[in-house]
Amino acid sequence: MMPETVLVTGAAGKIGTAMRNRMARSGRLLRLLDIAPMAEPADGEAIEIVCASAVDLDAMTRACDGADAVVHLASHAAERSWDEIVGLNIQSTYVVLEAARRAGTPRVVFASSNHAVGFCAKPSSGVVGDYVFPRPDTYYGVAKVTGEALGSLYHDRYGLDVICLRIGSCRERPVDERMLATWLSYDDCARLIEASLSAPDPGFRVVWGISDNTRGWWSLDEARALGYEPRDDAEAYADQVRPAPDDLGERYVGGEFCSSELDAEIPR
Ligand code: 15L
Prior knowledge:
binds D-galactaro-1,5-lactone
């Protein structure tokens, strides 16, 4: 059944902004939450704007009131210091799940990331399977692993449906060679979220989030089992992308997040 009220955290971010129109459905109210400003609803747009932080448990519990599902996107989108990652990326996922439990919101879709398993070797043939064991490449990746673990806990202990999307590179179009494997188009991202929102009784799932890329590294079996039918393929941009840099990161699926250069930028 299509959820009627969907709360989206991090709604002013890049993915959140791209999902605003794409997640709109007749009969659906989108409740968009962020601390950053967002465009006011246009005439006829069934949208509520909530200016609040995803780490504020009281505000999140109020925002979950009457919601059928939460799509949790709020996060620093790349590597940061440990304190910043704990303060937003880890804390917000706990708060979202706990707020959903308190408010009786039955389903949470969590934007996990390929960086939860970034230190998995690139497959020389075939694809990396679903549910591959965590091998985070950064504190950012650790937060995604932690979010998946919290999702598992809130499913097993409290019965929430929790779908974790190990998103590849979600953007307008692929810009480098790695993204020919890892790209998730905005349209396919919306399709994957929709499948995650409407699959009957999904329980706890971890699925890869990429388009139907000819050179894809990751299994789409579990995502397709939810009902996801991707339509885009990064190959369409193959003659327009930058070549892959020749460094350590290129051995692993997490790409430049695995490079030791990050250590200079982010003191450990
Ligand atoms: C992510 O999870 C990040 O949010 C984004 O900045 C990209 O680096 C992406 O993964 C990717 O792996 O391309």
